[in-house]
Specification:
Blueprint: E1 2-6, H1 10-22, E2 26-30, H2 33-42, E3 47-51, H3 60-69, E4 76-80, H4 85-93, E5 98-101, H5 106-117, E6 127-130, E7 133-136, E8 141-144, E9 147-149, H6 153-163, E10 170-171, H7 172-179, H8 190-202, E11 213-216, E12 220-223
Helix pairs in contact: 2-3, 6-8
Length: 226
């Protein structure tokens, strides 16, 4: 899952990024509205977190409105120090899906993000099943044939993206854009290395079962039984 954070207070933005990365999210951060709007309208995200007051041509609610006018329905969480009811109403009327008052606990932010990802509009269930492979996105538990698999945060993120798109060919660029940050330094074979790690954990220990992770040469990867 990939998240955009538009927040001019660099300490807060970087703290949010660190916390979410520990929860297996890929996170891009912007410190002003100009760059934020550009990223929000050109890159694929699963959730956007936008501060209300920002330097630049627009404030947070204007970014929200501009994103919605372009037909982008990504869930948006507004951060603000303004706690009056009419301010919250303005935020929701601009197209935001949720509103969080500063200061906030990271645990609450994480819970709200997960709630946004569970909304029926996006069809993102907490538990995903492909054959006998199960992934719980809330508890970060992966099992195959009832055996728990120990995955790193990045392995989990790649597997989750594959499992949310079963039997579909996902290109290298598809996967990288959803799993790594925009400015991540990715070597040419980084994804291939992680796919190898996943095969060692998801397929190789289960020799009596069909492999689930497949390479489609010249195109990318897909998951399922073929």
């Amino acid at each position: 899952m990939r998240i955009l954070v538009i927040e001019d207070e660099q300490k807060i933005a970087k703290a949010i990024k660190r916390g979410l990365q520990q929860e297996s999210f890929a996170v891009d951060i912007c410190f002003d509205s100009d760059e934020g709007l550009s990223m929000a309208t050109t890159e694929p995200y699963d959730v956007m977190i936008i501060d209300r007051m920002l330097p630049g041509e627009m404030e947070g609610l204007e970014i929200c409105s501009a994103v919605r006018k372009q037909g982008i329905h990504t869930p948006i969480l507004i951060l603000t120090a303004k706690d009056k009811i009419d301010e919250r109403v303005k935020g929701l009327n601009s197209g935001a899906d949720d509103y969080l008052i500063k200061p906030f606990a990271f645990e609450e932010l994480l819970a709200r993000i997960k709630a946004l990802l569970r909304r029926p509009k996006d069809s993102l269930p907490s538990e995903i099943v492909v054959e006998d492979l199960r992934l719980n996105a809330t508890d970060y538990i992966v099992t195959r044939a009832d055996k728990t698999l120990e995955l790193s945060a990045k392995e989990f993120a790649i597997l989750e993206y594959l499992m949310r798109n079963p039997k579909q060919i996902l290109t290298r660029d598809n996967i990288i854009s959803h799993v790594w940050d925009y400015d991540a330094d990715i070597l040419p074979n980084t994804l291939e290395v992680y796919i190898g790690y996943l095969r060692n954990k998801v397929d190789k220990p289960f020799m009596g079962k069909p492999p689930l992770i497949h390479t489609v040469r010249g195109f990318g990867y897909k998951i399922g039984v073929y």
